[in-house]
Amino acid sequence: LREELRLLARTIEKVRYLRLRKELAEGANPEINIDKQALVSRMEELGFRQDIVSALQELERKVYEAGTRLDFKGCIDLTRTIFEEIVEDAARRAATIKNHQLPPAGVKGNFSPWRKVLVETAALTGAEGVLFQALYDYLSSAGTHRLGSEPEQVRVARSIVIELGLLVVGRVQVLKREVK
């Protein structure tokens, strides 16, 4: 009985250790969470689609529950879609503010035309447009075209998308203020 109790105690300690390790490795980053809240607030102020906010919340749930490389691949893919949608809505708002032509209908799912609108309306600089395209290409490669992704890729991708989303949405807010 003593040996079984010792084995049980070691198992409990291992479970505690693994839970703590997971919490430390995947735990909440207060700075990113604050920036995510600011991003959501700004998107709501500009009338972005609520689906984007819902997708950000779903991403948090998926990341927390992910346990396999395939799960993390799904997280990267959702991160890419969120990035696409933020860029599209930001481009639509910037185009409206600047009286700039939208890309032709039918390019809804295509990233590049929306990114170009952001550069052409001065919501992004040329170098930032290149950065946005490079991130999109990375997210496409790490998520869509692979059978699995790593937790670190998801954490970095999520953080970068939130920060670049905050950048572009903030720029659209500036464009809006300048027009008034």
What can you see in these coordinates?
The chain is built from seven helices and no strands. The protein is elongated and about 80 Å long. The relative contact order is 0.14. The protein is mainly alpha-helical and 180 residues long. It has helices at 2-26, 30-46, 50-65, 69-98, 111-120, 126-144, 151-179. Helix content is 81%, strand content 0%. The N and C termini lie far apart (78 Å).
List the helices and strands and how they pair.
Blueprint: H1 2-26, H2 30-46, H3 50-65, H4 69-98, H5 111-120, H6 126-144, H7 151-179
Number of strands: 0
Please tell me the overall pLDDT: 89
Q: What does the radius of gyration come to?
A: 20 Å
Helix count from the secondary structure assignment: 7
- Biggest sheet character: none
Tell me the series of helices and strands, N- to C-terminal. HHHHHHH
Main attributes?
180 residues, mainly alpha, 0% strand
Brief overview:
It is built from 7 helices and no strands. Helix 3 packs antiparallel against helix 4, helix 4 crosses helix 5 and helix 4 (69-98) runs antiparallel to helix 6 (126-144). The protein has helices spanning 2-26, 30-46, 50-65, 69-98, 111-120, 126-144, 151-179.
